[in-house]
Request: fold
Amino acid sequence: MTQERPYFSDSIAMLEVTVDQNDYDLEILDQVTAELKHRSTLRAKDLQERVKGLIKQEREYQNQPDVDIQKEMAAITSEDLELVPAKKDKKKMDSAARKLDDINKVKKPVQYPEGFLVESFQALRNKLLDTAGSRSRLLNLDQSKKGFVRVVDELPKALASILLAEKTMRIVSVPEPTLDELIEHGYLERDEETSKLITLKPDPTAKEWAAVKGIHSEYELPSKDTDAGDGRHTDTDVQTLLFSPHLNKNLKSLSKDAKTSIEETGNNILFLSVGFLEYTDQAELNGTARKRLAPLFMIPVSIEKKVVNSITHFFIKYTGEDIIDNLTLREKLVQEYEIYLPSVYKEDEDASLLDPEAYFEEVQALLARKSDDPNISQWRVRRFATLATLSLGKLLMYKDLDPELWPDDGAALLDHELISSFFGTAKKQGSAGLRTETHGLDKMPTLHHDFPMVEDADSSQMSALIDVLNGENLVIEGPPGTGKSQTITNLIAAALSQKKSVLFVAEKQAALDVVKRRLDKAGLGDFCLDLHSDKAQKKKVLDSFGQRIANQDAYTFSEADYSLQVNRYERARDELQTYVETVNQSWKETGLTIHQILMAATRYAKEAAPLEYEDVKPQGLNGNNFSRFFLDEQLQQLEKFYDYLERVSNQLEDKGNWESHPWFGVNNKSLAAQSESAVKTALAQWNDSLEALFVGLGGAVESFGVVLARDITLDGFDQWLDEWQALPNLQGKELFTCFKLIQENDLPEIKEVCEQIETIAQLYQRLSTTFHRAFLSDLSQARSIEESIQTLKEIGVSDHVTFESIVASVSKLEGVIQLLKALDEDRVTLRKSVNEGLAELFTPDMAGFNELACFTDLVSELPAEYISHRCDEYDDDSLDEAIVKLKEQISALNTQQTDLSSTFKLDSLPEANVLRQYAKLSSESTAFSFFKKDWRAAKKHLRLFSTIEKPAFKKEAEHLEKAAKWLEAQSALNESDYFKKTLGSEFEGVTTHIERLEVMRAWYKKVRSQYGVGFGRRVPLASGAFHCSKDVFRGVQGLGSNALVSKVNDLSEGLTQLSQTFPKEVCLRDEHYDLAQDPNPLQTVLYKVKESLGDVQKHLLNPNLPQSNLMKSLKEVDELKSKIEQVDQADLSGRFFSGTLDFTVSANGSLPEDYAKLSQSSEFLSTLYSEVNLPELRAQVNACDSEADYLKLQQLREGLDELESSEAGFCEAFLKLIDGDIDSWLQGREQVFSALVDKNSTALGNLPWLDGWLKYLYAKERLEAGGFTKLKDYLLKQDVGLEHVQNVLKFACYRTIAEEIYAAVPLLSQKSGHEQSAVQRQFAEIDEGLKKIQRNRVAALAADVSVPEGERGAKVSSYSEGALITHELGKKTRHVAIRRLVERAGRAMKAYTPCFMMSPMAVAKYIPPGSLEFDLVVMDEASQVKQEYALSCFARGKTVVVVGDPKQLPPTSFFEKATSDSDIDSNEVSVIQDSESILEAIGGFTPKRMLQWHYRSRHESLIAFSNHNFYDSRLVVFPSPWDQSDEFGIKHHFVENGRFLNSVNQTESHAVVNAIRDHLLSSKESLGVVAMNSKQRDLIEADLEAAAATDKQLADALSKNRNSSDPLFIKNLENVQGDERDVIFISFTYGPAERGASAIPQRFGPINSENGWRRLNVLFTRAKKRKHVFTSMRSGQILVSDTSSRGVQALKDYLTFVETGRLAGAGKPTGKEPDSDFEVAVIKMLEDKGYQCEPQLGVEGYFIDIAVRDPGMPGRYLMGIECDGATYHRAKSTRDRDRVRQAVLESLGWNIKRIWSTDWFKNPDAELKPIFDELAELASPIQVAKPIDDFELEMMPASGASDLFKDETHFELEQQYASKSISDETLVDRLLKFQSQVIAKEYPDTEDERRLLRPDILHRLVENEPRDRDEFVELIPQYLRSNTDTQEAFEFLDDVLEIVAEFVEA
Reply:
């Protein structure tokens, strides 16, 4: 019988205490076991296993016999034989139940860390708890509440079975009564005279009509045994008690709420609740207790709508999520009544789900056990079923924050870094605050390895990623469109690459989906487990694991390709970065960058044109001395010099010719401080001495017959003095007689012969150290040496081998010859002993000797004692397997023998069958076996062969069985036919010689491996080894023992060594060369070598001389002979000395005695001809016949020394005085003697001009000091203005530094900008390729993980980890719940899918506390996440990154009711409590990074307002190539006649629906619609649905759109965060209450609130391409004041922006000045070509340098031109600069061209030509067009030709009606007036009984006052609706309802 449940109210912790204190008490342990069967947590399962073990242990102990065997035998012989087991004495409890109650009171208190704000923590946790029955639907689901759907006439078990089988069920309404039916049943009757309907009684309710139609109308469902007999309880229809309109309204509302909840929170709130607990609260037991209904069995479902034959049907379907208990009810019952609600799951191994009926019985049994409680006794289970919205997630999160449920007594939660930061009182040291500096990505060597990028990312995104993966907690602030999702995608991918696990948490489904789609695109989706909302279905989860496992082999990448791509990336990056760093670096000490210098040089080149740079190039100017200060100083000096120059130039005799000044050449400015007489005296003295020297020289040369003229050049004058002075002195052995014979052209030959004579002497001296003197005396002997050397070369002896080495080789060769002789004798002997085939292989060459050695070696390996065992069986390969098997069997038998020998005497064992019989008797031993004869005989026989003196026969069964098996196995082996056949005679049973078998077989295999099988040449050697006689075999072994093998090796080694010395001798290196032939080849080699050595060594002083040295000496001998021959052929003695001199060198190297006369005479003449060029002076020297004549000539020159010295002194004194030289003194005059004298005389005659000249020098010095000598010269020659001269100076300076830069930085001249552009393109391609490779690499790394295999057992409940997942994948149904799957296989799940994607509620629902820890927790859209939702998510991670935007929506209470605040002391309020959201809370402790690049908006106007008003213009916004465009920007639609009534704007809704239709039929762009409130959203949805019902085109377009990747959404202001679409329609909703009114109600719903501006920020930033603003109000109608909220002010400002295109407080989007002179020059040249340019185009953060407008379409930009200016150089990284920014601009449609400053500096025209050509092709034809504003937003009509609702005539009629006063009219009056003045005029022919406002309907309208379509359908009976004219209803129903709403509100 099934054990009843005790229903303890204890927590699991208290049950653990109970077990600890009663581990011996079976009664209490049994009760705990019964209770634990009804609990399903992992902790309960663990305790249950422990209790089972304790029970088993205790029962084994109690049943253990404790009896002596002798006493037992004695007892057996007695008549009252009894076995009484001894039991352990234990203390018993007086009352187990009472003690259990005492124990239940014991609780383990949680140990909170010191200083922990416990009250604050609990208060925050309690926000998740609501056990007040009046508020929580889980405690009291008010069945009368509108909006729910109650089920009738269905069986609970059938409902659950069908739904859980994943079948859809149709929700069925009560059929509405037709007119005929109402008449038939007496509700109506028709007046026969008037044909009007008369109401007899009120219309039937749905419940009343159900009874009429035979539908069971009681909400209490039938009993489980009910059988209707018509299949109604087993079909797929779900019956309700609602008419179709009411039912459809409720289902649409439920569906919308459920869908919104899933999208916004990830929490499904729609459940079919089957069965309710009806109870009353204890506090209300006063007789008036209110009964409450708490749902018991809740099935999560979704609602699907289908239209069949124009009829709308609604279906429900099980979502596949885990079914969980009503935890809120359970918690209430535990806390208030100490009752533990049963689980909905069975306690079987699969923890399968109970059916509702079984669960009701469990609950009813629980209530029965508490029947003694007067309150609980009134409780009961009600068989109700209701479809309603419930929130189960909050209590899950409440329990998730229970420290008791976390490991380490809660420390895993409470000690977590972030939890401690929130609630701990210790002050934290941290770097909280906004980080603005980015990481230097280009400088990170492991960037690609550690932080792979799978999505494009800018530096701000990558910096955030790096911070997080370096282990930092981080807040990422992501304003709209800044790439939060791509940042999270990259973050997850990088974490996966580092083998880290990630918990990605997002409340909104959209936020998670966009990341999941990106990861799917990157090929990483398989590593993500999506457990958010409807994705958390068991089948879907298991399918994802199945796909992950199936794709395991597909996750591969090439490490080589990856490394190559990274290398390519880094090369391209470095190349780009090098250029930027180079151009942007400060040049030396200039204080300017290279870029600035080049651009300045380019600009001032235009100003200085046509002047050439070389004409004004400054001297000494460089980057070390140039600066802006230097330039400014030089400009000042230039201005002063220019002013002075004009005054001084008037003193020149020849205007403009400064050399004409008498004192030109004077440079000593200090003369101005001296008297003029000193200058005059010095100049006069010099002039007089000059005249005296001229007279003296003239007299001296006159003796040669030479006349000295006064117009002699100054150089000629000095030449006479200098060359005469330079005549050479005599050495003493000169022969004057040869001077006349030796001409100047003979001197080179004589010099060469002298050098040869000296060389001959040197050669003799060097050769004397190598050769004997006799050899040097007869150099012809060199021939014999050369021939011997040649002989050695012929046998291959190298030049580098010494003769000593050759001698050693001779000795080696002699030894080899002796060794060969001995080996050959052994070879011949062996050949005679073997057969002919074998003998042929032992040839007399090295190969034969090696074969002999190998054969001998192999034969020697076989032990001598095995020689006789050679047989063919060993040559069989099958023997290997047989030997192994035999060895294993013998080994096993030996092991068994060893084991058995300790028990039995093996020699005495009986046969196996006897042993087996004994074993059977032993195993069946009982207390009565002793009386059996065979038992006693066996026991006795055992003693004979047992080694134990008294063996215990009852315990020997196992040993006996083993012995029997051993004997049988031994016998089987001995008789084995297999071994006998395989091993033949070598097999000896268990005594077979295994070692011999192994050795013999190994030897045979080795011989075969050496010689092979078959017919090979060497095969006979194997046969010989196997079959030769024992004598021959031993003889060969004898050769081996005599070291034959070693001798063969020595022979081989000796021949190898000799072949290296004599490589050309074939006999030494060819192993097949016959060494035994005659004559012996080795003897022949020996003879040749010995003979050659003898011919060489006899002439050498050193016999061991290396050949190479000898060859060098022989070359010197040849050179010596050549030199001697050349000297003899020159015959200098005969030609110039009459044969009297001898120049022969002796063999000892001594020079001849006459050599000195030759050399000194030659040297004298060489000096004379080189120093003296005057022919007259040369002739005079040659005329000397003796030494005496030559000395007289020298003395004549010495007489002029005094005059020359005097003139030189006075000249030097004067030139020194004026600080000049002779050239500058005579500059501009002839360089002749007479001109010099005239210049001196002129200066002496114009002494007063000296002062003017000195002042000019001062001015010139100041200019030249700066290096501007050429500029000074330019000024002296040109008459130009000061401004031009200043520009010239700037040009000269900048150009000089630019030239210096180009010379010092080869990169600038080696690479063109076009090449840089090519590298840019390559870099982009490489980066894209690397991104793709990284995707594969990350996947491969993530897949390369060890998955925990887990455990398997007989029971499924024992399966865990990978084994459990594999098992579940193999099942079709009844899959384990997801939470249980995580409990049992969490580690394997995380290994397969290291990224879990969940909502906060899903985390609490599916991941038990402490069961899984993630390396990283990422929380998205955190501004909307409440603090209490986030804490347990954080506690599951080591590092936390929170992503969100504090300027977007805060947390919303849209899906829950508010709970009362806790009463906590303000001093105890924690920071987290005081924060609005988790984003704000964590920001106080954690550093932040802000994403600033805005990517979403394809037109700057879409983000401009928010950026300016909400983000302080901090976002980097990229401009659009369209100034105005139909496709991009903001479009303003003013809705005429729109009015805000009943919280909706009907006219505006119609306009939006019209626009939706136009868009869907004409555009492929994605679309989203946002209204200001939920009612307007619902109205737009209803209008769209109504329009689609009558418009097939629209219906088809909507159907197609639903299947697109980004389908149409219609949302309100509260739930659009996180969404984006190409186009957004905004219905501003608000407007005048009356059509045409100038004033509007100043009520703007949530926009009026404190956070209203944040809602608007979200709203205004959803569009990517275009926004259409539909509004019925103008900005001027919104009234603001100082007290107006920021939201209202923003609303007004935005409408102003929409209307005018201008931002309040912001400048124009363009109008900035050019960024540099570079851009100015480019713009000027473009404008010269007729193109209008916008410099610095943009709004915020980023500006395009130059935007070129389309001449024919001014709203479009043809091209954007970037000039590698400051914007380019300031980029944070190479990717930002050369990849991302360019890609963003191009994605926006820009045609971007770049002009590089280096190219522009070289040739501006060449750079602009291709741009001009392309602009000419792109430009549109110029058309005459009206002027446009700087920023014109198109005002568009609110509805067009496709208007689905009304035409212009209709509007006119409405306005006529509306213009009349209706303030005092009744509703009937108003409706009748509308009928007569509007409807009747539009449709005059409609029959009265089909009018929209006929009396029957008019009566219902006045009675029920429906204000919208849903209320109309619900309150107006179907028979009236169906008989109404369709056209009237379609066009005017909304207006009628608006009149009713207006009346009601008034």
